[in-house]
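Please check the following.

. . .
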Amino acid sequence: MVGIGPGGRLDRTFRAQAAIEASEVIAGYKRYVKAVADLIGDKEVIATGMTKEVDRCQQAIKAACSGKVVALISSGDAGIYGMAGLALEMIHAEQHDLEVEIIPGMTVASAAAASLGAPLMLDFAIISLSDLLVKWEVIRNRLQAVAKADLVVALYNPRSRKRIKQLDETVDIFLEHRSPETPVGIGTDIGSEEEHLVITTLGSLLQHEIGMRSLVIIGNSESKVLGKWLVNPRGYQI
């Protein structure tokens, strides 16, 4: 399992690139396969669309069981909303005797934070707003706990064409515990030529364009905007 980073070539690790180059089969979501097209050459490719993760893992495992070296790729880090967990569950359930290596990558929260400044300098949480695999009630309880705890939070999958209310409700939850002036950062298409950054406030967050390729970082009571940077101070005396 290989984490390829947020998408841009410069954000790949040497280890990830070496693993892909050494593999005979590349398996991944179509967009992610395209992101590493320069490394694939004439290798066998297993590419599927959204919601086909189980099928993709099954094909990758089948190829590995046949003796091929397979790179099952994920954007960001393979173990953070990636394919590593599902693949390990399936390998264990089907009792395959396979040699497995999990190669970490830069998750989009780290990449977006670096572009925005230093908003994750202290304790923070990561929560996905996608309720395809997790009930919204569970996600809502987690959001309420994080908001009450005054943790900075990075929101993955904040909104899609069909999922609008989740981000709206998230903002309402945080406004119960934080000022409307709380700094917020939005990063879209991080690591690509189309990267777009916005620093705004919790009260104005919903006025901005946000989609599935966006990541939202909601600051806490200590977060600040310093010029063009969003920063969560660690507590040093300066």
Observations:
- The radius of gyration is 19 Å.
- DSSP finds eight helices and twelve strands in the chain.
- The CA atoms of residues 147 and 176 lie 8 Å apart.
